[in-house]
Amino acid sequence: SASSDKPDIYLIVLDAHGRADILQEKYGYDSSGFLQELNDMGFYVAECSQSNYASTNLSITSLLQMDYFPPEQNNTAKLPPLKESAVLRTLDAHGYTVITFENRTGGHFDLQEDIKLAHNQLAFGELNLTGGLNEFEKIMLHTSATRFLLDTEIIPAFTADTLTRFEDYEHYQQTRFILSKLQEVPELKSPKFVLVHLLVPHSPFIFTPEGDFRYPEDTSRNGYRDNVAFIDRSIVSSIHAILDRSDQPPVILLMGDHGPPPGRFATQADRLKILNAFYVRDDMQQELYDSISPVNSFRLILNEYFGMNYPLLEDASYSAYKLKQLGDASVMENTCIPASQ
Question: Among 118, 159, 273, 299, whose Cα sits 20 to 30 Å from the Cα of 144?
Protein backbone atom coordinates (compact mmCIF):
# COMPACT_ATOMS: atom_id res chain seq x y z
CA SER A 1 0.00 0.00 0.00
CA ALA A 2 1.60 3.24 -1.14
CA SER A 3 1.42 6.30 1.09
CA SER A 4 -0.08 9.56 -0.18
CA ASP A 5 -0.90 13.00 1.14
CA LYS A 6 -4.31 12.73 -0.53
CA PRO A 7 -7.04 10.75 1.24
CA ASP A 8 -8.78 7.75 -0.19
CA ILE A 9 -12.33 8.76 -1.15
CA TYR A 10 -15.26 6.37 -0.83
CA LEU A 11 -18.58 7.20 -2.46
CA ILE A 12 -21.04 4.66 -1.06
CA VAL A 13 -24.48 4.90 -2.65
CA LEU A 14 -27.28 2.96 -0.95
CA ASP A 15 -29.82 3.00 -3.75
CA ALA A 16 -33.25 4.30 -2.63
CA HIS A 17 -32.24 4.82 1.01
CA GLY A 18 -34.66 7.31 2.48
CA ARG A 19 -34.22 9.93 5.19
CA ALA A 20 -34.86 9.05 8.83
CA ASP A 21 -38.13 10.97 9.14
CA ILE A 22 -39.64 9.30 6.07
CA LEU A 23 -38.52 5.85 7.19
CA GLN A 24 -40.25 6.41 10.52
CA GLU A 25 -43.38 8.07 9.19
CA LYS A 26 -44.09 5.90 6.15
CA TYR A 27 -42.48 2.57 7.04
CA GLY A 28 -42.45 2.47 10.84
CA TYR A 29 -38.67 2.04 10.81
CA ASP A 30 -36.57 3.66 13.53
CA SER A 31 -33.11 4.43 12.15
CA SER A 32 -31.91 6.34 15.21
CA GLY A 33 -29.61 3.49 16.27
CA PHE A 34 -27.99 3.37 12.82
CA LEU A 35 -27.52 7.14 12.75
CA GLN A 36 -26.06 7.09 16.25
CA GLU A 37 -23.50 4.50 15.13
CA LEU A 38 -22.52 6.80 12.27
CA ASN A 39 -22.22 9.73 14.67
CA ASP A 40 -20.10 7.64 17.03
CA MET A 41 -17.72 6.82 14.17
CA GLY A 42 -17.35 10.53 13.41
CA PHE A 43 -19.89 11.04 10.62
CA TYR A 44 -21.89 14.20 10.12
CA VAL A 45 -25.46 13.24 9.20
CA ALA A 46 -27.39 15.88 7.25
CA GLU A 47 -30.82 15.41 8.82
CA CYS A 48 -32.76 17.35 6.18
CA SER A 49 -30.96 16.39 2.98
CA GLN A 50 -32.84 15.96 -0.29
CA SER A 51 -31.70 14.52 -3.60
CA ASN A 52 -31.44 16.99 -6.47
CA TYR A 53 -33.28 14.65 -8.86
CA ALA A 54 -35.68 11.74 -8.55
CA SER A 55 -33.66 9.12 -10.46
CA THR A 56 -30.30 7.43 -10.09
CA ASN A 57 -28.93 8.53 -13.48
CA LEU A 58 -29.64 12.22 -12.98
CA SER A 59 -28.74 12.20 -9.28
CA ILE A 60 -25.32 10.55 -9.62
CA THR A 61 -24.40 12.54 -12.73
CA SER A 62 -25.30 15.81 -11.01
CA LEU A 63 -23.32 14.74 -7.92
CA LEU A 64 -20.13 14.11 -9.93
CA GLN A 65 -20.63 17.09 -12.23
CA MET A 66 -21.25 19.25 -9.13
CA ASP A 67 -23.92 21.11 -11.05
CA TYR A 68 -27.53 21.08 -12.21
CA PHE A 69 -28.73 20.22 -15.69
CA PRO A 70 -29.96 23.22 -17.70
CA PRO A 71 -33.62 22.70 -18.72
CA GLU A 72 -32.67 22.90 -22.39
CA GLN A 73 -30.59 19.74 -21.93
CA ASN A 74 -33.82 17.75 -22.10
CA ASN A 75 -33.20 17.61 -25.84
CA THR A 76 -29.82 15.96 -25.34
CA ALA A 77 -29.71 12.35 -26.45
CA LYS A 78 -27.81 11.11 -23.44
CA LEU A 79 -26.16 12.16 -20.23
CA PRO A 80 -22.49 13.16 -20.25
CA PRO A 81 -20.17 10.24 -19.38
CA LEU A 82 -19.31 10.02 -15.70
CA LYS A 83 -15.64 9.61 -16.60
CA GLU A 84 -15.72 13.17 -17.98
CA SER A 85 -17.33 14.66 -14.88
CA ALA A 86 -15.60 17.43 -12.95
CA VAL A 87 -14.92 15.17 -9.98
CA LEU A 88 -13.37 12.32 -11.99
CA ARG A 89 -11.24 14.72 -14.04
CA THR A 90 -9.90 16.30 -10.86
CA LEU A 91 -9.10 12.98 -9.21
CA ASP A 92 -7.44 11.70 -12.37
CA ALA A 93 -5.20 14.76 -12.44
CA HIS A 94 -4.14 13.93 -8.87
CA GLY A 95 -3.24 10.34 -9.68
CA TYR A 96 -6.21 8.56 -8.16
CA THR A 97 -6.95 4.94 -8.98
CA VAL A 98 -10.66 4.44 -9.70
CA ILE A 99 -12.23 1.28 -8.24
CA THR A 100 -15.80 0.09 -8.74
CA PHE A 101 -17.87 -3.03 -8.12
CA GLU A 102 -19.96 -4.95 -10.60
CA ASN A 103 -23.71 -4.80 -9.93
CA ARG A 104 -27.01 -5.11 -11.77
CA THR A 105 -26.72 -1.68 -13.37
CA GLY A 106 -24.73 -0.86 -16.46
CA GLY A 107 -24.54 1.56 -19.34
CA HIS A 108 -24.28 5.08 -17.99
CA PHE A 109 -22.37 4.02 -14.88
CA ASP A 110 -19.20 3.14 -16.76
CA LEU A 111 -16.38 5.11 -15.13
CA GLN A 112 -13.70 3.45 -17.26
CA GLU A 113 -12.36 2.35 -13.91
CA ASP A 114 -8.87 1.03 -13.30
CA ILE A 115 -10.20 -1.87 -11.22
CA LYS A 116 -13.64 -3.49 -11.24
CA LEU A 117 -14.27 -6.07 -8.54
CA ALA A 118 -16.81 -8.69 -9.60
CA HIS A 119 -18.46 -11.64 -7.93
CA ASN A 120 -19.27 -13.44 -11.16
CA GLN A 121 -19.64 -12.81 -14.87
CA LEU A 122 -21.52 -15.11 -17.23
CA ALA A 123 -23.53 -14.48 -20.36
CA PHE A 124 -26.23 -16.22 -22.38
CA GLY A 125 -26.25 -14.68 -25.82
CA GLU A 126 -27.17 -11.02 -25.36
CA LEU A 127 -28.45 -11.63 -21.84
CA ASN A 128 -26.19 -11.06 -18.87
CA LEU A 129 -27.73 -13.62 -16.55
CA THR A 130 -25.65 -12.59 -13.54
CA GLY A 131 -25.90 -8.83 -13.74
CA GLY A 132 -29.63 -8.39 -13.30
CA LEU A 133 -32.27 -7.92 -15.96
CA ASN A 134 -32.19 -4.48 -17.51
CA GLU A 135 -35.14 -3.14 -19.49
CA PHE A 136 -33.81 -4.44 -22.82
CA GLU A 137 -33.28 -7.90 -21.37
CA LYS A 138 -36.80 -8.00 -19.93
CA ILE A 139 -38.20 -7.11 -23.35
CA MET A 140 -36.05 -9.83 -24.90
CA LEU A 141 -37.42 -12.38 -22.46
CA HIS A 142 -41.01 -11.61 -23.35
CA THR A 143 -40.86 -10.87 -27.08
CA SER A 144 -38.14 -13.08 -28.55
CA ALA A 145 -37.17 -16.69 -28.97
CA THR A 146 -36.29 -16.72 -25.28
CA ARG A 147 -39.99 -16.21 -24.54
CA PHE A 148 -40.63 -19.37 -26.56
CA LEU A 149 -38.16 -21.27 -24.41
CA LEU A 150 -39.86 -20.06 -21.25
CA ASP A 151 -43.36 -20.88 -22.48
CA THR A 152 -42.61 -24.32 -23.85
CA GLU A 153 -40.00 -25.32 -21.23
CA ILE A 154 -37.90 -27.04 -23.90
CA ILE A 155 -35.04 -26.59 -21.46
CA PRO A 156 -36.15 -28.37 -18.26
CA ALA A 157 -36.76 -26.04 -15.32
CA PHE A 158 -36.00 -22.97 -17.48
CA THR A 159 -39.08 -20.94 -16.58
CA ALA A 160 -39.68 -17.26 -15.92
CA ASP A 161 -39.98 -17.97 -12.20
CA THR A 162 -36.76 -19.98 -12.17
CA LEU A 163 -34.90 -17.22 -13.99
CA THR A 164 -36.25 -14.56 -11.64
CA ARG A 165 -35.18 -16.61 -8.62
CA PHE A 166 -31.75 -17.08 -10.17
CA GLU A 167 -31.44 -13.35 -10.83
CA ASP A 168 -32.56 -12.45 -7.31
CA TYR A 169 -30.16 -14.89 -5.73
CA GLU A 170 -27.29 -13.63 -7.87
CA HIS A 171 -28.15 -10.09 -6.72
CA TYR A 172 -28.15 -11.37 -3.13
CA GLN A 173 -24.71 -12.96 -3.55
CA GLN A 174 -23.38 -9.92 -5.39
CA THR A 175 -24.45 -7.63 -2.55
CA ARG A 176 -22.86 -9.86 0.08
CA PHE A 177 -19.68 -9.97 -2.00
CA ILE A 178 -19.49 -6.17 -2.23
CA LEU A 179 -20.03 -5.70 1.50
CA SER A 180 -17.32 -8.24 2.28
CA LYS A 181 -14.79 -7.20 -0.37
CA LEU A 182 -15.20 -3.53 0.53
CA GLN A 183 -13.47 -4.31 3.82
CA GLU A 184 -10.31 -5.31 1.93
CA VAL A 185 -10.18 -2.30 -0.39
CA PRO A 186 -8.10 -0.13 2.02
CA GLU A 187 -5.18 -2.49 1.34
CA LEU A 188 -5.08 -1.46 -2.33
CA LYS A 189 -2.70 1.27 -3.48
CA SER A 190 -3.56 4.85 -2.52
CA PRO A 191 -4.80 7.37 -3.41
CA LYS A 192 -7.98 5.78 -4.69
CA PHE A 193 -11.55 6.73 -5.46
CA VAL A 194 -13.95 3.91 -4.67
CA LEU A 195 -17.51 3.99 -6.02
CA VAL A 196 -19.75 1.50 -4.25
CA HIS A 197 -23.25 1.43 -5.73
CA LEU A 198 -25.29 -0.99 -3.63
CA LEU A 199 -28.76 -1.71 -5.03
CA VAL A 200 -30.20 -2.00 -1.54
CA PRO A 201 -32.68 -1.05 -0.10
CA HIS A 202 -33.90 -0.75 -3.70
CA SER A 203 -36.12 -3.56 -4.96
CA PRO A 204 -36.11 -6.54 -5.23
CA PHE A 205 -36.92 -6.82 -1.52
CA ILE A 206 -35.14 -10.12 -0.99
CA PHE A 207 -33.24 -9.47 2.25
CA THR A 208 -34.46 -10.28 5.72
CA PRO A 209 -33.23 -7.93 8.46
CA GLU A 210 -30.72 -10.63 9.42
CA GLY A 211 -29.40 -10.85 5.86
CA ASP A 212 -31.00 -14.12 4.78
CA PHE A 213 -32.27 -14.63 1.23
CA ARG A 214 -36.04 -14.28 0.76
CA TYR A 215 -37.91 -15.51 -2.33
CA PRO A 216 -40.28 -14.45 -3.63
CA GLU A 217 -39.60 -10.88 -2.61
CA ASP A 218 -41.85 -9.19 -0.06
CA THR A 219 -43.62 -6.39 -1.94
CA SER A 220 -45.43 -5.15 1.15
CA ARG A 221 -44.30 -2.25 3.30
CA ASN A 222 -42.20 -4.73 5.27
CA GLY A 223 -40.10 -5.63 2.23
CA TYR A 224 -38.52 -2.20 1.84
CA ARG A 225 -38.19 -1.83 5.62
CA ASP A 226 -36.37 -5.18 5.93
CA ASN A 227 -33.98 -4.25 3.12
CA VAL A 228 -33.19 -1.02 4.98
CA ALA A 229 -32.61 -2.87 8.25
CA PHE A 230 -30.23 -5.29 6.51
CA ILE A 231 -28.13 -2.69 4.72
CA ASP A 232 -27.94 -0.37 7.73
CA ARG A 233 -26.45 -3.09 9.88
CA SER A 234 -24.17 -4.44 7.15
CA ILE A 235 -22.72 -1.15 5.91
CA VAL A 236 -21.71 -0.16 9.43
CA SER A 237 -19.51 -3.26 9.65
CA SER A 238 -17.89 -2.47 6.30
CA ILE A 239 -17.23 1.14 7.28
CA HIS A 240 -15.67 0.09 10.58
CA ALA A 241 -13.25 -2.08 8.61
CA ILE A 242 -12.43 0.75 6.20
CA LEU A 243 -11.60 3.09 9.06
CA ASP A 244 -9.58 0.48 10.96
CA ARG A 245 -7.52 -0.56 7.93
CA SER A 246 -6.84 2.83 6.33
CA ASP A 247 -3.36 4.29 6.75
CA GLN A 248 -4.82 7.78 7.05
CA PRO A 249 -8.40 8.98 7.60
CA PRO A 250 -10.37 8.57 4.37
CA VAL A 251 -13.23 10.66 3.05
CA ILE A 252 -16.50 8.70 3.05
CA LEU A 253 -19.71 9.95 1.49
CA LEU A 254 -22.61 7.64 2.43
CA MET A 255 -25.84 8.57 0.69
CA GLY A 256 -29.04 7.57 -1.00
CA ASP A 257 -29.27 8.60 -4.65
CA HIS A 258 -33.01 9.02 -4.05
CA GLY A 259 -35.52 7.87 -1.46
CA PRO A 260 -38.15 5.11 -1.51
CA PRO A 261 -40.25 4.60 -4.64
CA PRO A 262 -43.49 6.59 -4.81
CA GLY A 263 -46.66 4.56 -4.87
CA ARG A 264 -48.65 2.78 -2.20
CA PHE A 265 -46.42 3.76 0.70
CA ALA A 266 -44.59 6.97 -0.23
CA THR A 267 -45.16 10.09 -2.31
CA GLN A 268 -43.22 11.77 -5.09
CA ALA A 269 -41.88 14.26 -2.55
CA ASP A 270 -40.77 11.42 -0.25
CA ARG A 271 -38.64 10.00 -3.04
CA LEU A 272 -36.33 13.02 -2.82
CA LYS A 273 -35.64 12.72 0.93
CA ILE A 274 -32.38 10.86 1.38
CA LEU A 275 -29.76 9.60 3.75
CA ASN A 276 -26.69 11.83 3.41
CA ALA A 277 -23.72 11.38 5.75
CA PHE A 278 -20.12 12.59 5.60
CA TYR A 279 -16.93 11.25 7.17
CA VAL A 280 -14.54 14.18 6.73
CA ARG A 281 -12.04 16.04 8.87
CA ASP A 282 -13.21 18.54 11.45
CA ASP A 283 -12.51 21.64 9.36
CA MET A 284 -14.93 20.47 6.68
CA GLN A 285 -17.54 19.35 9.19
CA GLN A 286 -17.82 22.98 10.20
CA GLU A 287 -18.90 23.78 6.63
CA LEU A 288 -21.65 21.16 6.49
CA TYR A 289 -25.31 21.90 7.21
CA ASP A 290 -28.50 19.88 7.68
CA SER A 291 -30.09 20.61 4.29
CA ILE A 292 -27.00 20.12 2.10
CA SER A 293 -27.84 18.32 -1.14
CA PRO A 294 -25.53 16.11 -3.24
CA VAL A 295 -24.79 18.81 -5.82
CA ASN A 296 -22.70 20.57 -3.15
CA SER A 297 -21.01 17.53 -1.59
CA PHE A 298 -17.94 17.38 -3.79
CA ARG A 299 -17.76 21.16 -4.04
CA LEU A 300 -16.94 21.16 -0.33
CA ILE A 301 -14.70 18.08 -0.54
CA LEU A 302 -12.59 19.48 -3.38
CA ASN A 303 -12.35 22.85 -1.64
CA GLU A 304 -11.22 21.30 1.64
CA TYR A 305 -8.86 18.59 0.41
CA PHE A 306 -7.62 19.95 -2.93
CA GLY A 307 -7.47 23.68 -2.26
CA MET A 308 -10.15 24.60 -4.78
CA ASN A 309 -12.62 27.43 -4.50
CA TYR A 310 -16.01 26.21 -5.68
CA PRO A 311 -18.90 28.37 -4.46
CA LEU A 312 -21.87 26.52 -3.05
CA LEU A 313 -25.01 26.35 -5.17
CA GLU A 314 -28.55 26.77 -3.96
CA ASP A 315 -29.90 23.41 -2.82
CA ALA A 316 -32.82 22.50 -5.06
CA SER A 317 -34.79 19.32 -5.73
CA TYR A 318 -36.58 18.46 -8.98
CA SER A 319 -39.07 15.71 -9.74
CA ALA A 320 -37.40 14.76 -13.04
CA TYR A 321 -36.65 11.09 -13.72
CA LYS A 322 -35.21 11.55 -17.21
CA LEU A 323 -33.52 14.22 -19.30
CA LYS A 324 -36.65 14.79 -21.36
CA GLN A 325 -38.52 15.79 -18.17
CA LEU A 326 -36.12 18.54 -17.10
CA GLY A 327 -38.08 21.39 -18.63
CA ASP A 328 -41.34 20.32 -16.95
CA ALA A 329 -39.93 19.13 -13.63
CA SER A 330 -41.65 20.29 -10.47
CA VAL A 331 -39.57 21.95 -7.76
CA MET A 332 -39.91 20.08 -4.47
CA GLU A 333 -39.61 22.33 -1.43
CA ASN A 334 -37.68 21.19 1.62
CA THR A 335 -39.81 21.77 4.72
CA CYS A 336 -37.76 19.55 7.01
CA ILE A 337 -36.89 20.76 10.51
CA PRO A 338 -33.82 19.09 12.05
CA ALA A 339 -34.57 17.00 15.13
CA SER A 340 -31.86 18.92 16.97
CA GLN A 341 -34.01 22.06 16.75
Answer: 118
Q: Which residues have C-beta within 8 Å of that of residue 131, sequence separation ≥ 6?
A: 102, 103, 104, 106, 121, 170
Report pLDDT for 77. 60
pLDDT for 136: 45
User: Rg of the Cα trace of the chain?
Assistant: 20
Sign, CA torsion 266/267/271/276: negative
| 54-56-59-61 Cα dihedral, nearest 10 degrees | -150
Q: Give the three-class secondary structure for 115.
A: strand
Helix (H) or strand (E) holding 143, with range, is: helix 135-143
- Helix, strand or coil, per DSSP, at residue 93: helix
329/131 Cα distance (integer angstroms): 31
DSSP conformation letters of 152-199:
HT-STT--HHHHHHHHHHHHHHHHHHHHHHGGGGGGSPSSEEEEEEE-
Tell me what pLDDT residue 140 has.
46
